[in-house]
Amino acid sequence: MSQEIHFVSHGHCGSIRVQNLIIQTGIASVGDRLSPKVVKKITILGPPAVGKTSLIQRYVNDVFDTDYRSTVGAHVVTKEVQAGDITVVLTIWDLAGQPTSRTLSKSHYLGSGGSLLIFDLTRPETLEELSLWAAELERAVGHIPLILIGNKSDLEYPADSSERMLRMATRLDARYFMTSAKESINVNDAFETLARQMVL
Ligand SMILES: Nc1nc2c(ncn2[C@@H]2O[C@H](COP(=O)(O)OP(=O)(O)O)[C@@H](O)[C@H]2O)c(=O)[nH]1
Ligand SMILES: [Mg+2]
Questions:
Q1: Mutation to probe ligand 1, out of 43, 54, 129 (largest number of atoms < 8 A from CB)
Q2: Which of 93-102, 136-145, 146-155 has the lowest mean pLDDT?
Q3: Which of 62, 102, 165, 187 fits a 20 to 30 Å CA distance from 151?
Q4: Which pTM was predicted?
Q5: What's the fold here for domain 2-199?
Q6: Ligand 1 pocket residue status of 54, Cβ below 6 Å
Q7: From atom 8 of ligand 1, which residue's Cα is the shortest distance away?
Q8: Residue 46 CA: which ligand is closest?
């Protein structure tokens, strides 16, 4: 089950809604059993056009579209996933309006239980830019579970990409995946690995 929340300004408006979600949840029924239900915020970070919105759309709605540019302001979607005995309600915070790591409002990072750091495998410079995003995130919320994602694996990319990705993952203490939002490769694995890391 998924639910979309759109709003035009970030900050209090967004956090109030997320808090409401926390208040409303607590116990979920899974089959004939009751299981704990927790809400976790994950932030999706990375430079423009690496495929952040496409990965979220693939994971939450299982679709791929070539144009998501119209979104204005913060954009949050939710999705429930099972991690062991725990039902995790992921509130997934996309970036909109193409902010940089420094211009992104601090409220966007606050409360994050985990983060997906996304780069474009076909543009190696986008991997290097993730250092800045990771630094700003850590300044705001300390060290949290991170997944490094090299997206667009369906396209041609430089041969040394996986080596460079592994080095960055080691530096960030992150797990890593090569994904394609277009061909639906590794997308569920990446989100669900993060969900498990946040609660288990
Ligand atoms: N070939 C390919 N294109 C992708 C993939 N993911 C995103 N794109 C394209 O890359 C562009 C930017 O994607 P978008 O999700 O808007 O990036 P964002 O700015 O990071 O949210 C769009 O034209 C997408 O269709 C992918 O896995 N493979
Ligand atoms: Mg986007």
A1: 54
A2: 93-102
A3: 102
A4: 0.85
A5: Rossmann fold (3.40.50)
A6: yes
A7: 51
A8: 1
